[in-house]
Amino acid sequence: MLNENWQQQICLTFSLLLYNNVRHMTASISAQDQIANFLAEAIPEKILAFKFDASIQKRIEELVYRKKEGTVTPAENEELERYLAYDLLIGLAKARASMYVENS
């Protein structure tokens, strides 16, 4: 699990990326919302239990650190954006899954 400082940094980084890509992200967020609803309804318990494994968490931490330090390459920045999009999708799915579990 990412520690609180890294989670805050990831949230900040995602907010900046979202701010810089609002037009592009609007359609993507809508699609992510639909996918999140589908997954949450189909397999809520598995969605709630999901977390990235330690190697992916470590990679995200490395990329966030490099972004913060200004040493991230364009390819690494794209990789970080993908991880942040996955995190948004999983977060949306977990929120929906939690509602499904509570209401069942």
Spans where pLDDT lies below 50 across 5 or more residues: none
The number of E-state strands comes to 0
User: Topology as H/E string?
Assistant: HHHHH
Average pLDDT metric: 81
How many H/I helical runs?
5
Structural class: mainly alpha
Query: N- to C-terminal separation?
Result: 28 Å
Which value, in Å, is the CA radius of gyration?
15 Å
User: Which outline best applies?
Assistant: elongated
Largest sheet: none
Helix content: over 70%
Beta-strand residue fraction: under 5%
Molecular structure report:
The chain has 104 residues and is mainly alpha-helical. The protein is 87% helix and 0% strand. α1 (4-20) crosses α4 and α2 crosses α5 (74-103). The protein is elongated and about 45 Å long.
Give a short synopsis of this structure.
By secondary structure, this protein is mostly helical. The protein has helices at 4-20, 22-42, 44-49, 54-69, 74-103.
